[in-house]
């Protein structure tokens, strides 16, 4: 019984890694049905902690080798983007373009599906990268803090997933469901308190959840639900919010 439970969780972790990173998973077993992929949402914060830890670890390593923190930060962000394939950044740009440039729901959704980037998307990307790069240069413990922020950001994207219906019938997000939302939020919170002092963990958790709620409210008003771009954009914004809270609480 225990072996079967662990095997199922391992398959769900593989599904989360396959969705949120570019890691070559080879023969890692995957869930056999859509319900298994939906349950994999519990593992999103684990993948987020891995991604954030890669960026924070790169920052600590490069600074230890003598690079100034401000120069190490862009290289560390590059490592993060290589690992994730800039999946969430792409979502943020599409969400910003759609919400900023569309006149009605149908037009907003059409813009979000367009692969081209507009001025709203470009500005959102630049601001988010600048904020995270500045935070990386200032964090006193980049490895632990970035890992915690990464976990909380992937937990926060579950807020609009859990609160809103899909904005369109097709697309990846439409099939995610809500089965893994509550466990994912719990895993994200647990990782934050494991990696950070209680005060910092609480402030970062609140900031990330508030960012998730804000994106959910905005998405409901703009397009009536969530999409993959909304979830990806939410992850980036929640990471920015969590890092800001951590630096305010230093």
TrEMBL record:
Family classification: Belongs to the CobS family.
One GO cellular component term: plasma membrane
Catalyzed chemical reaction(s): alpha-ribazole + adenosylcob(III)inamide-GDP = adenosylcob(III)alamin + GMP + H(+); alpha-ribazole 5'-phosphate + adenosylcob(III)inamide-GDP = adenosylcob(III)alamin 5'-phosphate + GMP + H(+)
Membrane topology, from the record: Multi-pass membrane protein
Biological or metabolic pathway of the protein: Cofactor biosynthesis; adenosylcobalamin biosynthesis; adenosylcobalamin from cob(II)yrinate a,c-diamide: step 7/7
Localization, UniProt: Cell membrane
InterPro entries noted in UniProt: CobS
Coarse class of the protein's main subcellular location: membrane
GO terms assigned for molecular function: adenosylcobinamide-GDP ribazoletransferase activity; cobalamin 5'-phosphate synthase activity
UniProt feature coiled coil, ranges: none
Name listed for the protein in its UniProt record: Adenosylcobinamide-GDP ribazoletransferase
Source species of the chain: Teichococcus rhizosphaerae
Cofactor(s) named in the record: Mg(2+)
A single GO BP: cobalamin biosynthetic process
Top-level lineage group: Bacteria
